[in-house]
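User: I've been trying to design a sequence by hand for this structure and keep getting stuck. Would you show me what you'd pick, starting by listing the structure so we're on the same page?

Assistant: Good idea, let's start from the same input. This is the structure you sent:
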C-alpha cells in the first residue's frame, strides 16, 4: 500500500547509498511509475504521482546534479513536494505527447486550456475537474505547455467509494480532445492507497 508521507532531508539517502540502491531497485520504480500511468487517447498521458515517484525524482535530481549540501537538497524537496498527494487528492503530471514537431506545435495551439478540462469521475459521483498548474501558469495566448501539473480533490464520500471498489473514469472534455477511459483495476488499487 502506498501511504502518503513526508519527504525530509533525513529520509533521503546519501548519494553513495542511493547509487547502490538504484542499481537494485530502479526496475521496481519504473514498474510502479508504469502502473500509475494512464494513457488517454493517442497523445495524452497522465502520470499519477506518489511518494515513491516523487522520492525517486528527488533522488535522481540530486544524483544527476551531484547535490549533497543541505540548501540544495532542501530546494529539490521544495520543488517536488507540491506533487505529493495529501490523502484527499490525486496529483499528476499531464503530458501531451506528439513525436512530430509540426504536429506538436499545431496541437498545443489548439489545446489551450486542456489542463482545466481534465476530470476524474468516481462511479455514482459528479465529475471532479483538475486544479492545474498551481505553481505557475504554463500557457499563453498562443499555446499550452506540453506538461502540466494537476490535482483532483475528492470528497470524503468519493474517497470512501474508491476504497470500497468503485470504478473511476479519467477524461477530458476539451473541444479538440474529447476522450475518456476507465482506470484499470490494478492502477486504481494503487491510487486508492493514496487516499485517507
Amino acid at each position: 500500500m502506498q501511504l502518503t508521507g513526508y519527504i525530509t532531508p533525513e529520509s533521503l539517502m546519501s548519494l553513495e547509498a542511493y547509487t547502490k540502491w538504484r542499481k537494485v531497485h530502479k526496475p521496481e520504480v519504473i514498474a510502479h511509475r508504469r502502473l500509475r500511468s494512464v494513457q488517454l487517447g493517442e497523445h495524452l498521458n497522465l502520470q499519477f504521482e506518489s511518494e515513491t515517484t516523487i522520492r525517486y525524482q528527488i533522488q535522481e535530481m540530486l544524483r544527476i546534479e551531484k547535490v549533497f549540501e543541505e540548501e540544495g537538497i532542501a530546494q529539490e524537496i521544495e520543488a517536488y513536494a507540491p506533487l505529493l498527494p495529501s490523502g484527499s487528492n490525486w496529483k499528476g503530471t499531464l503530458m501531451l505527447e506528439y513525436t512530430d514537431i509540426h504536429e506538436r506545435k499545431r496541437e498545443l495551439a489548439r489545446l489551450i486550456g486542456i489542463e482545466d478540462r481534465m476530470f476524474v469521475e468516481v462511479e455514482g459521483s459528479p465529475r471532479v475537474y483538475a486544479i492545474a498548474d498551481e505553481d505557475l501558469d504554463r500557457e499563453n495566448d498562443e499555446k499550452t505547455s506540453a506538461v502540466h501539473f494537476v490535482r483532483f480533490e475528492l470528497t470524503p464520500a468519493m474517497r470512501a467509494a474508491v476504497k470500497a471498489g468503485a470504478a473511476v473514469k479519467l477524461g477530458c472534455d476539451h473541444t479538440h480532445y474529447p476522450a475518456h477511459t476507465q482506470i484499470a483495476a490494478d492502477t486504481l488499487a494503487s491510487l486508492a492507497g493514496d487516499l485517507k
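That's my pick for every position. To get oriented when you compare it with your attempt: Residues 89 and 154 are 6 Å apart (CA to CA). Helices lie at 15-35, 51-64, 70-80, 101-110, 156-163, 185-192.
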